[in-house]
Amino acid sequence: MDTRLLVEDFSAWYGQTQAVKNVTLPVYASQVTAIIGPSGCGKSTFIRCLNRLHEVIPGTRTRGRVLLDGQNIYDDRVDAAEIRRRVGMVFQKPNPFPTMSIFDNVAAGLRVHGLPPGTTAEEVVERCLKMVGLWDEVADRLRDSGVSLSGGQQQRLCIARALAVEPEVLLMDEPCSALDPVSTLKIEELIKGLKEKYTIVIVTHNMHQAARVADYTAFFLNGQLIEYGVTSDIFTNPRDQRTEDYITGRFG
Ligand SMILES: Nc1ncnc2c1ncn2[C@@H]1O[C@H](COP(=O)(O)OP(=O)(O)OP(=O)(O)O)[C@@H](O)[C@H]1O
């Protein structure tokens, strides 16, 4: 299996607080990798390091390497904006640009990164809205505000926005935690469909969700990677007592 991202001995800090501790982890191409663990264990910090978003917070620092297709994204010569195009992100709370229409929300990144050669913004917007299963619901009101949609639709809009700039990797930080069960199921089905084309890393509080959508699962505790493996192994046959205690609900 191809390794899309390889995290090597990676640590991250907020001031003196070390939130990620010496993590080494592969992320395989066209697979879904879930990051699980109790609140405060460093899940969000970790995935924000995978597209250099951690460093936008003042006072933070990192150490270690993250190889994207073999290239260290933390090399001095690397353009962080280009990394954030190649490694897109979807957040916990749907965050469409509030003053923009549905169309402009999806097209927003194209203004920064440019249109793929030989395409129009209309084509890209339609293709991405179809990919997230939103086209039929919004085709006749593309000029309406993005925030006029339901929460679940807004989250799919944000995924379409991330896909418009043709990323290789999609990071999802608890993408369903603000959604109802039906919208959650739609996003989970979407994730399963998208993984053919994209590599997905999802942070989730919900172990059932990890079991449903992820091929690989990484369990974090206190900033450390405790255990990583094929999802079914992590849930049915964990090697570490702490993983077992967490997945059986003894803490967290
Ligand atoms: N902006 C920040 N400034 C200072 N410390 C922070 C900041 N964000 C997170 N931390 C600290 O870093 C550690 C890891 O937090 P992080 O948000 O990555 O954990 P998490 O596993 O994603 O938690 P949750 O599941 O509650 O979102 C915690 O100790 C947290 O208090």
Automatic annotation (TrEMBL):
It comes from the Bacteria. GO terms for molecular function: ATP binding; ATP hydrolysis activity; phosphate transmembrane transporter activity. Residues 5-247 form the ABC transporter domain. It comes from Neomoorella glycerini. GO terms for biological process: phosphate ion transmembrane transport. NCBIfam families: 3a0107s01c2 (TIGR00972). Keywords: ATP-binding, Nucleotide-binding, Transport. This is Phosphate import ATP-binding protein PstB 3. One of its GO terms (cellular component) is membrane.
